[in-house]
Amino acid sequence: MAKGIPLMGRGPDGKAKIINVDENGNVKVQLSGTIPLETVIFNRVGPIGGKVAEVIADIKQPCELCSFSIGSNYHNVFATINSYSADGTLNGYLRLPAHDGQYMYEPSARNVQIHANGENDFWQVAVYNETENQFVLTMKRSIMFNNGVKITIRNYSDVEQLCAVNVAIAKWR
After folding, report:
1. What pLDDT digit, counting tens, does each position of 25-55 carry?
2. CATH among 2.60.120, 3.30.420, 2.40.50, 1.10.760 for 34-172
3. Which of 15, 41, 76, 151 is 20 to 30 Å from 24 at the Cα level?
């Protein structure tokens, strides 16, 4: 006779039920939840023109922004991370509140450095070197978007600047 503890669970009807095992005695389980369809990486390196906006990623399905970093030789190259509504329209983007609550700023190394002392719950300035013109902004945690995300980088300067961006997004079913 087999030794061990019988495992019991409850069926959909709420009644006690023996848990299924395979031929080797391993418990059969089925994972629930959302499973990533694929992870996509977006990279861009090089100049961005003065007063230019460039779309880096445009995903119109449930997804998770897993990683984002932007480096530049100019402190005010920034990103807009928009979310899509269920009807497919853009419904706003992540911004950084001013200390006094009277304004919202676009996320850039400069704005996070000045208005959040280098970091908040989402953004972190990894490099802020005005002498060498080196500025890197990264995100600290992932964020889910139920209907998709659009990421655009923008150069506030009147002249061309250098900019490198790395983004990882997990698309969901």
Report:
1. 777 766 566 667 899 999 999 999 999 999 9
2. 2.60.120
3. 15
